[in-house]
Design brief:
This protein is of the alpha+beta class. A hairpin with a 2-residue loop joins β5 and β6. The radius of gyration is 23 Å and the shape is flat. The N and C termini lie far apart (about 60 Å).
């Protein structure tokens, strides 16, 4: 009887404890989980499974690794928030798979993404043909974002958290020198003060950082 009570207690305690841990990690949809999120969640599940399987082991031996994993996840989320290079390393960047109705074969090969995957996600987006597409991006989450030719074109961010997005400048046929000149017209000399910047309607839309 005591054995069963121990199992019941450990199961209930771990359920509540892990629920609190997940709430502390923040709210993200399953499809938006980063690689680190998935690793942390899998490890927590393994630790909890061992704790329930070996009920004679002290419960603290299961709690401590979960707390360490919580701090790892919070630290990685904080670093990703503060540094785009770390964010790109952890979460990855969107990949351009279709441009002006032309499938980018090299990019698909790089992402290990086949034509069956592309056709399936186009159907899910209600797209009958790639010729309808202006841009299609494979997001880090694995979702496909599609912009039709008759829709408003996707607006590329030129500065994110102080970092100039040179690959976006190339796409809109601009360069860093042009960007700095446009920023100077807005009395901005240092890109590190810029939180977010896009080029729309032939002018920059700028949001400065809050210090």
């Amino acid at each position: 009887m005591e054995e069963y009570l121990t199992i019941i207690f450990r199961t209930c305690f771990l359920y509540v404890f892990i629920l609190i841990v997940f709430r502390l990690m923040g709210k993200r949809e399953v499809g938006e989980l980063s690689v680190i999120d998935l690793v942390v969640f899998v490890l927590i599940a393994e630790v909890a499974a061992f704790a329930l399987d070996d009920y004679e082991n002290p419960l603290f031996n299961a709690i401590l690794p979960i707390i360490i994993l919580l701090f790892i996840q919070i630290l990685s989320a904080y670093l990703s928030l503060k540094n785009k290079k770390i964010r790109d390393l952890v979460d990855g960047e969107p990949a351009l798979l279709v441009k002006d109705g032309i499938i980018q074969e090299n990019e698909m090969r790089k992402q290990r993404y086949n034509l069956d995957d592309l056709c399936q996600q186009l159907r899910e987006n209600g797209i009958a043909s790639v010729t309808e597409i202006a841009y299609a991006y494979l997001e880090p989450s694995g979702n496909l974002s599609v912009y039709k030719k008759d829709e408003k074109a996707f607006i590329y961010p030129l500065i994110i958290d102080g970092d100039i997005q040179n690959r976006h400048l190339l796409i809109i046929h601009k360069d860093e020198e042009w960007l700095m000149e446009e920023l100077a017209k807005n009395n901005i000399q240092d890109t590190s003060t810029v939180f977010f910047c896009i080029w729309e309607d032939n002018r920059l839309h700028i949001q400065l950082k809050e210090f």
